[in-house]
Sequence to fold (248 residues):
Amino acid sequence: MATSPSGSFDTATKRLADPPPLAAIMRAFTRFSYSHSDHKAVARKSPTKPRKNASQERSRATVDALVEATARILVKEGFEKASTNRIAEVAGVSVGSLYQYFPSKEALVAAVIERHNEEIMAIVRTALLEVADLPIDKAVRKLVTVAIEAHRINPKLHRVLAEQIPRTGQLRDVEAFNREVHTLVRTYLESRRKEMRKMDVDVATFICVSAIESVAHNTVLNHAEMLTEKTVRTLVDETTRMVVGYLR
Fold:
C-alpha cells in the first residue's frame, strides 16, 4: 500500500495507533462476503468442534456419512429439523456413534461448512495457479468463470450454510477462507503491475474480488433463471470487461 510522506513524531505515532482504513474495510468484507448474511454472530451455546478425529477407515466412513446426512437434512428439511437423532437416522448410525465424534448438531453443521468451503477453495486455488502466467484479460475471464462455477456447487446448501454461519460461530473460518482468496489474487496482481495503471494493489484486490464475488453469488443464489449457457457467457464477458477496464 502506498505511504504518505512522514510528518511530525505525533503524526507518525497517530498513524501507528490508528488502524489503516483499508484494513478495516477488508475485515468487514472478509467477515460477510462469503456468507452474505444479515444475521449477527451470537454466543455459541453448543460446542462446534469435533470430539475426536477419525483416524481409521471405518471411523472416517462414519464421519463422512454423518456430515453428508447433515448436509442433506439442511437442504431438504432445514436447520431446526436437523436434530442429532434425525442426522443419525439418515446416516444409518447410532446416536451413540454420532456423539463419539460430534458433541452437537452445531458441530456437524460446522463440519459441513468446512467441507463446503474446502470444495470451493480447491477450485479457486487451481484456477489461480492456472492463471499465474496469463495476461490480465485472460486471467480475469478465467476467475469470473470459476467464481460462477464454484457458487454452483450445491447452491441450495450454500444458501442454507450462509444463514447458519453466524449461528455456528464459523465466521472465523470464513474470514480465513476469504483472506486466502485475497492473498492469492493480490499476489497475481502484484506480478502484473506492468499491465495495470498506477494504483494501490490492496485496493485493486479488494475491488476485483468484491465485483467478481458479487456477480457470481447474486446470479447463482438469487437469479437462477440467468444460468442459461448464453446468459452465463454474457455475464462472464461483461464482468471481465468491467474488471479489466478498471485495472487498465
